[in-house]
Structure formats: C-alpha cells, structure tokens
Design brief:
The chain is α/β, with parallel strands linked by helices. It folds into 3 domains: about 1-60, no CATH class; about 65-230, Reverse transcriptase/Diguanylate cyclase domain (Alpha-Beta Plaits, 2-Layer Sandwich), CATH 3.30.70.270; about 240-490, TIM Barrel (Alpha-Beta Barrel), CATH 3.20.20.450. It contains 18 helices and 17 strands. It has helices at about 1-15, 25-60, 65-80, 100-105, 105-120, 150-165, 195-210, 220-245, 280-290, 295-315, 330, 335-345, 370-380, 395-400, 410-415, 420-435, 450-460, 475-490, and strands spanning about 90-95, 130-135, 140, 170, 175, 180-185, 215-220, 245-255, 260-275, 275-280, 320-325, 355-360, 385-390, 405-410, 440-445, 465, 475. It has an 8-stranded mixed β-barrel, surrounded by 6 helices. The protein has a 5-stranded mixed beta sheet with strand order 2-3-1-6-7, with helices on both faces. Strands 4-5 form a two-stranded antiparallel ribbon. Helix 1 crosses helix 2. It is globular. Mean pLDDT is about 85; it is low at about 1-20, about 50-60 and about 495-500. The structure holds ligand C2E and calcium ion (CA) (2 copies).
C-alpha cells in the first residue's frame, strides 16, 4: 500500500510540466555525487525519464466517456434501489438552438456557457446527485436514491433544472436566454433494471418533449417506448401518407403591426397520423428528406396553400398572401419554377399572393446556380421571397440584393424577451435599420407575449407572427379564428408604430 502510494506520488511529481523544475537539482546532485560522467548521464536521462513518466500518467488516466460514466452511475443506482425500497430517477436536458447561438456568439463563448451549466444545475440538486454532459448540448442527471421520488417530484425537479438553465446569462454586454426541454424516467418506470435502460427511457421522454416544442417536460411512459419503436416504421409509411393526404398544411397567421390586419398565413407541415395523432415536422421531415421525398412534400404543401387561398377567397375573404417553406433540396429542382407556375394557373392565384420562405443557409456563399436561377425565376414571376430565421446565419448584403429578397423574417432568438432586454432591442434595431436601407419589409417570428408584440411593433417591425397572435391551425379552424380576431381587433385601440 505504502509502496503503491509512493509510486503514485512519484508519478504525479514527475509527470506534469512542473517536473522540469527538478532537472537542475537532479543534475547538480549527480555532479556532486558522481562527477562529470554522472552529470552527463543525469542531464541526458532526466528528460527521458520524465517522458516515460508522462506516458505512464496518460495511460493511467480515465478514458471513459461521460455517457459511459452516466450509465455506470445509473447502474449502481438501479442496484441500490432494487430491494431497498428506495427510488431514483434519471433526467436528460437538451438546450435548444445551440448551433444558432454558436453562430451568433461564437464557439468560445458558447463553450464557456455550456461548461457553466453543471454548476448552475447543481444549485437545485443535492450534493450526492451527479450531472454528466453526455453530448454538446445535453446533460444527464443521476439522482441519488431516496425514499420519495415520484412523478410529482420529477416534474417539480425538471422545472427547477430548466429554471437553472434558463436564468439570464450575462455574456460581456449581452444577456443570453437559453431554453431547455427535459425528459425523465423514474427507476420504478424503467423498462429494465439497468442504467442503460433508465438513460434510454429518459432520452425517449426527451425526444417527445423536443417534438412538443421548446420548454416542454415529459416523463417516460410505456406508450413512449412503443412510439419510439414505431418511429422506424415512419420511414416506410411516409410515402403512402403523402399520397393519401395525411400530410397536411396547418396555417399560422401573420398580421400587420400597423393596423393589426391579417396579411397572410404561413403553411406548416403536419402529419395527421391515423394512429399516432398529429406529428410535428421535426418527427418526419428528416425521414422525408432521407427518402428523397422533399419535392413531393413541396408539391403537397403548395397545393394545400393555394387551396386554402381559394377557400378563404370564397368564405372569409381578405387574406392577401400565403407562405410556403422550401428547403435547399426543393429549391435545387430545375423544374420548380414551372411546377409553381402551373399550380398557380390551376388554382387561378396570381404569383404576388405566394410567398416562398427560404432559410439563410440557402443564400450562403457557394449556393448552386440552379437555386439562384430558380429564385430569380420565381421572383420574376411575381412570387415574394422571405428570408427565414434571419440573423442566425451569415447572409451577405450582396446575397440579399442578388436574390431579390423581399422580407427578412427575424428569428425567434432575437424576439424572446425583446420588451425587457436592451441588447435584444439593439440587435433588432440594427436589423430593422439595415432592412429599411435595403428597402425590405420585416416580420418578427415566434412572438409569444403581448410585451414582445408591442416592442417589435414599436421598433418598427412591419409584420408579426407567433403564439401571441395564434398557434398554427388546421384550415377548418382558420375561418372561426379570423372572425373572432377581426371582431376583437375592431374593439381594440391600436398599438402605434414608432414614427421617425
Ligand atoms: P419555421 O419555418 O421557422 O417555422 C416556425 C416554427 O415555429 C413552426 O414550428 C411554428 O409552429 C413555430 N412557432 C410559431 N410561433 C411560435 C412561437 O410563438 N413560439 C414558439 N416557440 N414557436 C413558434 P413547426 O411547425 O414545428 O415547424 C418547424 C420547422 O419545420 C419550420 O420552422 C420549418 O423550418 C420546417 N417546416 C415546416 N413545414 C415545412 C414544409 O412544408 N417544408 C419544409 N421544407 N420545411 C417545413
Ligand atoms: Ca418558415
Ligand atoms: Ca423561422
């Protein structure tokens, strides 16, 4: 025991950069004791010895990953719980939009923020609970076993962990707001009594939470497991679903910040699955993309959107425009302008009433000539082009000009807390000033509160979209919503826009 401690201390002493401090002392001692020959031998062999020590130190270092560490800890917890009557749980939290935030604040800042997360989370946990960063933006929490650990406590603790992550973060002159989803599984609900099973179940709950939107908490249930399994079946079903009309457009209104009038609706894809209910795009877009079916989705969404315009024209009236989202793969289809022209003719809709939303990455340097040609053909036809998620990428002013963009859709990350946060206001003001100089319209997306709504319109953002106005609705519900909205608008005093 004493010998092994001595070896360990030796290894520690001679393996770090600090070990170089001993070299002069060792060589001097060698000279005193053994003369010149010893001096030369020591001078030559000391660095070699240290190199060997460093290698052995590295080899002895822990090489397990945080994911393996989390699984091992959870396995010990499962063993502790079995038979003892004590309980525990595993929580997994994922921070939203890390890629966007990295583009905005830089990798070094994001790394600093994410590295700080465990200590923030620890402030709401007990000393013997443990946190593992199992992926870039993902943290697993292993609770030490206790007598009471039930669903209610799981939900409360999830909320506290989210609160710790979401508390404003000061970064130089800026305040940053993060959002996190949380999935958790109680040991009593774990499909198997192993750490891996508990962690998988918490991750399955997290996947469901993410699908429901930012800030959601989900506890693992048996039904989730079967839904997870059946997710692999989605790939087989999606083509048929597109053909059978199960993939439909839901519509989210966009309103003028000046008058409050409805200026359009954005069509968002929803899969109304006969057994699993309504699935959001995050559940099936990747599968559609992998199956090469994005052009088919674009066709479905275009038809649904134009059909909706026809329906509104014949019923409620006064919906000037409809927007559809086109991804890079869809925009790279050389037949796209023709297909859109034929559809517009078929539904007898003028091109000026169709807005195409494209993401910033589509206009990044190096985009294909086909995409450029398609966008300019669509714009010449009269279609309008919105630059979606604006501010999260690196669009150049030249690209905005070259691609005849009509409107900048300011990303939700700039809109969150807009009414309370001066830095957010400065960012939005900068975007609005640029838009004004370039003669572009603007729309704030993801406007969730009345405060954000009035601030965006005060700053001069021309259009507003978000839950504060309405969530996306199926076509059948839009008529009733519009009637109620217009009745309310007629009674409400208008929020004035900034003038001058
Ligand atoms: P996006 O184009 O940025 O669409 C806005 C997303 O934000 C929608 O999510 C919408 O439901 C959600 N949202 C709207 N208002 C608020 C708000 O106030 N707060 C919050 N937190 N969220 C809000 P959704 O429908 O889940 O769509 C997600 C993404 O999927 C879309 O983001 C778009 O990129 C893609 N997508 C949807 N439909 C289509 C489609 O037909 N084709 C293609 N290529 N992509 C689509
Ligand atoms: Ca969009
Ligand atoms: Ca967007």
């Amino acid at each position: 025991m004493a010998l092994s401690s001595l070896i360990r201390v030796n290894r520690q002493l001679f393996s770090g950069p600090h070990a170089t401090a001993f070299v002069p002392a060792i060589t001097l001692a060698a000279f005193w004791l053994g003369g010149e020959v010893a001096l030369i031998t020591a001078a030559l062999s000391a660095p070699l010895m240290m190199l060997l020590a460093m290698q052995s130190h590295k080899a002895g270092k822990d090489t397990t990953t945080p994911l393996q560490d989390a699984t091992a800890r959870l396995t010990r917890i499962q063993t502790d719980c079995t038979g003892s009557g004590r309980k525990s749980a595993c929580f997994v939290l994922a921070i939203d939009g890390v890629e966007h935030l990295t583009n905005r604040y830089g990798a070094a800042s994001m790394d600093r923020i994410l590295s700080d997360m465990p200590s923030r989370m620890m402030s709401v946990l007990r000393g013997d609970d443990q946190i593992f960063r199992i992926a870039d933006n993902r943290f697993a929490v292993a609770l030490s076993p206790s007598a009471r650990c039930d669903l209610e406590m799981g939900i409360t603790l999830s909320g506290r962990l989210q609160g710790a992550i979401e508390a404003p973060y000061k970064l130089d002159e800026t305040t940053l707001y993060l959002n996190a989803c949380c999935g958790f599984c109680l040991t009593s609900k774990s499909p198997e009594a192993t750490g891996a099973s508990l962690l998988d179940a918490a991750q399955a709950a997290l996947a469901e939470a993410i699908a429901q939107g930012s800030g959601t908490i989900r506890a693992f249930t048996e039904a989730m497991k079967s839904r997870q399994l059946s997710r692999s079946r989605i790939a087989d079903e999606v083509e048929l679903a597109l053909e059978q009309g199960q993939v439909r457009a839901w519509f989210q209104p966009q309103v003028s910040s000046d008058t409050g009038a409805i200026t359009g609706f954005e069509a968002l894809a929803r899969w109304e699955h006969p057994e699993r209910g309504m699935l959001p795009p995050s559940d099936f877009l990747p599968v559609i993309e992998q199956a090469g079916l994005l052009p088919r989705l674009a066709e479905v969404m275009l038809h649904e959107a134009l059909h909706a315009l026809n329906t509104w024209d014949n019923t409620t009236g006064d919906v000037p425009k409809v927007s559809i989202n086109l991804s890079q793969a869809e925009l790279a289809d050389p037949n796209l302008p023709d297909r859109i022209r034929w559809s517009l003719e078929r539904f007898d809709v003028p091109a000026e009433r169709l807005v195409i939303e494209i993401l910033e990455n589509v206009v990044a340097p190096g985009i294909s000539d086909v995409v450029t040609r398609n966008l300019s053909a669509l714009s010449q036809m009269g279609c309008l082009i919105d630059l979606d998620d604006f501010g999260t990428g690196q669009t150049s002013i030249t690209a905005i000009r070259r691609l005849a963009i009509n409107r900048l859709k300011i990303d939700r990350s700039f809109i969150t807390h807009l009414n309370e946060d001066k830095e957010q206001q400065r960012m939005v003001e900068a975007i609005l000033t640029m838009a004004e100089r370039l003669n572009l319209e603007t729309i704030a997306e993801g406007v969730e509160t009345v405060g954000e709504y009035s601030q965006a319109s005060l700053l001069g953002c021309t259009h507003i979209q978000g839950y504060a106005v309405s969530r996306p609705l199926p076509l059948e519900k839009t008529g009733e919503w519009m009637a109620q909205y217009r009745a309310k608008l007629a009674k409400t005093p208008q929020i004035g826009r900034k003038t001058g």
